[in-house]
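Trying the structure run again after the queue cleared.
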Amino acid sequence: MTTTASGFASSFSLEGRVALVTGGGRGLGLGFSTALASVGADVVIVDRSGSPEAMAEIEAMGRQAWSIQCDLLAATPTEVRDLVGEVASVAGRLDVVVNNAGIIRRQPALDFEDANWAEVIDLNLSKVFYLSQAAARVMVEQAGGIDTIRAQAQGGRETSIGKIINIASMLSFQGGKIVPSYTASKSGIAGLTRALASEWAPLGINVNAIAPGYFATDNTTQLRADPERSAEILARIPAGRWGRPSDLHGAAIFLATPASDYVDGTTIPIDGGWLTR
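Done. Tokens:
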């Protein structure tokens, strides 16, 4: 009984692992950073402004934390790949990636401006691919290279060499209103998650996504400030409230740890029941 309990607990541990969280210094990203630290991960936060408070919170949990300032929207594909190399160099390794950074632009589709389309697609979708690709290369190298991995996987992959968690949305499933580029990007994230999982699962890299419902974050400030729209949204959520960052902790820990080694290409809605209606 003790052995079984111990084995179960260890499957939810990130002791000795390093996680990278983009936009990990505030909002949902801070929740992901602290959740992973709570089960043993050392955390690298990448954001535009530095994250001293988030780093202090993680270090107070007994974990190491690093902050790398980078404007992912302004970064070129080469700069994104170099960033991942810097993360691995600073922290010594890279085991988990949470692609959390994202933006939203609200404007009717008839009037939607070119920049509002291009910037959202670039940050929310294209940069997720570039960062994931670079991280997967690091994970493969850590595991001894592609030939070693394929030789060891004869007869089926047994353990994971890395985890990539993308952040999808309710708009990965639905159309939404006045957010065409956001909907396109998050629908793309669901597809990209499946595509990368299909290629990388045999290598031992699990790629999955979390789809938050309506959460109280900066992205929903405009919605929550509109009494009519806020009431409309709350009326459709069976749980009867906006989500909190802590509501995502369980899914993030599950997808980042060995507990999910046989989970590939899925998108998990965390929505208070929104999609049931």
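The mean pLDDT is 94. Worth checking whether this holds up in the mutant runs.
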